[in-house]
Every structure is written in C-alpha cells, then in structure tokens.
Amino acid sequence: ADLLIRQPVVRASNVADALNIPSPNVYRLLDRFADEEALIVAGAGRNRVWRSPQVLEALDAFAERAGRRG
User: Fold this and answer.
1) How far apart are CA 27 and CA 52, in angstroms?
2) On the chain, which terminus has fewer CB atoms closer than 10 Å, C or N?
3) pTM for this prediction
4) Looking at residue 68, what is its pLDDT?
5) For the residues 30-56, what does the mean pLDDT come to?
6) Helices assigned H by DSSP within the chain
7) Taking 90 as the threshold, does the pLDDT of residue 40 lie above it?
8) What is the pLDDT of residue 69?
9) Residue 56, exposed/middle/buried by CB under 10 A (0-12, 13-18, 19+)?
C-alpha cells in the first residue's frame, strides 16, 4: 500500500522490484487488491496495469485546490 501512495499506477514488475518479491506472488497480491476494489486493473496478460483510484482522486483534488501557478 505504501508503494501505491508514491506510484498510484503500477505494473507487476514495478511492484516485484520495489518489494523484492517474486512476480507470481505480486500478481496474487495485486489481484487481491483489485478484488477488494482498492485497485482497478486495465489491460490483459503481461500488459496489465493496476491503478489506485483513491490515491489518484486525492492527487486530483490537491491539484485542483492548489490551482495552476504561473
């Protein structure tokens, strides 16, 4: 979950490298988060990416509150 705060859109290889765990375990972990609707999966097979809608919404809300600086 901490990794998703820093990088709200990930591939399995990103997670495996960051957490130093085997890829098959990563897929099970990410799919479990998706089953709980904490992540949304897009793509298929090796091209899958997972995104955290809650983190992305929080970042969008922050950007809106911060406004664009010139």
Assistant:
1) 15
2) C
3) 0.80
4) 65
5) 91
6) 2-6, 12-19, 23-35, 53-66
7) yes
8) 61
9) middle
Would you state the structure tokens that stand for residue 66, as one six-digit string? 């911060």
Q: What is the pLDDT of residue 18?
A: 94
Give the CA radius of gyration of the chain. Answer: 14
Instruction: Tell me if residue 10 falls in helix, strand or coil.
Output: strand
Q: Which residues of 26-50 are buried (b: 16+ CB within 10 A; e: fewer)?
A: beebbeebeeeebbeeeeeeeebeb
Residue 16: its pLDDT value, please? 95
**CA 38 centroid distance within chain:** 9
Q: Cα 15 to the chain's mean position, in Å?
A: 9
CA 62: distance to chain centroid? 18
